[in-house]
Amino acid sequence: MGQPRVLLIDDDRELCALVREYLGEEGFEVQARHRPGPAVEEACSGQYQLVVLDVMLPEINGFEALRRIRSRCAVPVLMLTARGEEVDRIVGLEIGADDYLPKPFNPRELMARIRAVLRRAGGASEAEPAERLEVGDVQLYRPARTVTCSGEAVELTAVQFDLLAELLQSAGQVLPREDLSRQVLGREFRPYDRSLDVHVSHLRRKLGPNPDESERIRSVRGVGYLYTRPSAGD
Which whole number is the average pLDDT over 222-226? Predict the structure, then answer.
């Protein structure tokens, strides 16, 4: 397979050098780019397994760079945000980031986040459940990581795909936020972390309501989420 390749887009040259050195020791090949414009095209070239993208960039900010990347491809993107700027994290997830990490960060945590995102993107699962899941008008095929809704293909990020798979696998049952956070995001749930809610919001928007206009993914206050099964008459 060779070394996993990561594209780091950040104008902090010192930080880039440190990240390249650390990830290099962990078996990753890192290319650093300091100008986001040209880097957007490179991100979607098929050369990289993951993009690490800073929010604060010259010329165009990280959000605009992420929009341009998402308009071209579904390469996993981990965003670097200013510590305490929750709004940055939410905006990044809304646009299509797979995860985020506040600056300054511990390189070991960056490594853990990268591995978790790559695991999700690769679709690896130790207890391989059913390859194909079908609930109502939604079909999900794990090997090809494809989803259709009412016969139409639905483009999902790696996180959104894994979240939907967990919900469909347990359709009709309430899944606690804590379990979804561990299974989908690869980390323990924290009450102030809205990442999961944002990803669910994305899924709702992309899939729409059920054919009978009922809610497809239901929030269960204080517990988690439930993917509704169609009624017997549907």
Answer: 90
Write down the number of H helices and E strands in the chain: 8, 12
The answer to whether the CB of 174 falls within 8 A of the CB of 166 is no
Q: pLDDT of 111-165, one tens digit each?
A: 988 988 888 777 543 334 567 898 999 999 888 889 999 999 999 998 999 999 9
Kindly compute the dihedral angle of the four CA atoms of residues 207, 210, 212, 213, in this order, to the nearest 10 degrees.
-60
Task: Give the distance from CA 191 to its chain's centroid.
Answer: 19
Between CA 185 and CA 105 the distance in angstroms is 18
Rounded to whole angstroms, the Cα distance separating 78 from 100 reads 5
Question: Which residue, chain included where needed, has tokens 């009922």?
Answer: 214
CA 139 to CA 152: how far, in whole Å?
A: 10
Cβ contact 19:133 at 8 Å: no
CA 221 to chain centroid, in Å, comes to 24
6-49 pLDDT, tens digit each: 999 999 999 999 999 999 888 889 999 998 888 988 998 888 99
Is-contact 98 75, C-beta < 8 A? no
Type of residue found at 50: L
- pTM summary value: 0.60
Query: What are the backbone angles phi and psi of residue 41, rounded to the nearest 5°?
Result: -65, -40
